[in-house]
Amino acid sequence: MQPWAILVCAAALLGGCASQPAHQAPAQQLFHDQLFQPASRPIDTASVFALTPAMRDYVRHEIGTPGPGRDVRRVLFDALYRRDKLQLEYDAAMTRTAAETFAARSGNCLSLAIMTAALARELKMPVIFQQVQVDEVWSRAGNLYFASNHVNLSLGRPLAGQNPYMATTMDVANSLTVDFIPIPPKARENARPLTEQTVLAMYLNNRAAELLAAGQVDDAYWAARRSAEVDPLFINAYNTLGVIYQHHGNPAEAEQVLRYAHSQLPDNTIYLSNLAQTLDNNHQPEEAAALRARLARLEPYPPFYFFTQGQEAMQLGDYARARTLFERELDRVPDYHELHFWLAMANYQLGNLRAADRHLALAMENSTTRSDHALYSAKLDRLRAHAAQLRQK
User: Fold this and answer.
1) What's the total number of domains in the chain?
2) Are residues 266 and 320 in the same domain?
3) Residue 374 belongs to a domain with what CATH number?
4) What DSSP state is assigned to residue 174?
5) Which residue in 71, 79, 105, 271 has its CB near the most CB atoms, within 10 A?
6) Residues 43 and 7 in one domain
7) Residue 94: count of CB within 10 angstroms of its CB
């Protein structure tokens, strides 16, 4: 089996709360710049929330300014959701800056939140970013596994006589929450505020993960390093650094930084898994086995457990068993598009074209990127054409 690693994207880890003791900022020795080529382009953190002239024109001409009896927050809110206005689309393919998201009219939850905050601040509205307490959404690219959390934001009115740019002066009780994917009401009620510093670290960490998945390991390192510099207490950045060291062939450095992440959050299953894998690579099987035993107690069936077994069954031609295993994984993550795709393939091999059609349609419906949507749409068209040919015989 190929070694695999887990990255955390989009938001801070669930489970942390303001009442816990602050994590210690790590020493500089966790960074190993000498191992990597310089970044192909400078990392400009100032550009993340920066507005373009086109964005300022949009605010001026389409949103306008507050007036008596006019809630400009509602005007902005409507512009974000109405297809005859900004026509925003959810697309998880890449984490974008505010300007890139505005130009593309699409982005993941973090990109859309960053763009909305930039427009709101141009309108002198205070905003609060929030970590939404929902289960992590899992995806994968090759031997990289991604756990994505969710961020949204609330628009508020400044309290009388206070600085409109300061979120701490916001009338939270009457704020307006902006969310680009449906979430349970309970999760929204339990949302945890995030600082802009942490949101910027999340952006950089996402970009590091995306660059690593694209094979740009050197650029990924510099993005993850900058994420840790921007918010030294954002522990996901060190997990990402550890995975980058793994892929760059630096096992000792990977172990060092993953031990640090694990020491800060000892029960985090993602850090445990990555550290155990690294210890195996570093010929420390006893300690790796001890960590895996603890991991099994915390998480007996890790993400993609049944999915991986289902793929192995597909390779062996045991399509009935593969279908059963994919269905077990789907019980845990009913909206994951790739599971529906593989269920479609298993059903196709079993001659159940109706079920294959249904799961391909669900794969397309639940896809999170335009490219995946187009891929599933094309496969669904071919399947339906094939089914039509069979009916004519």
Assistant:
1) 2
2) no
3) 1.25.40.10
4) G
5) 271
6) yes
7) 17
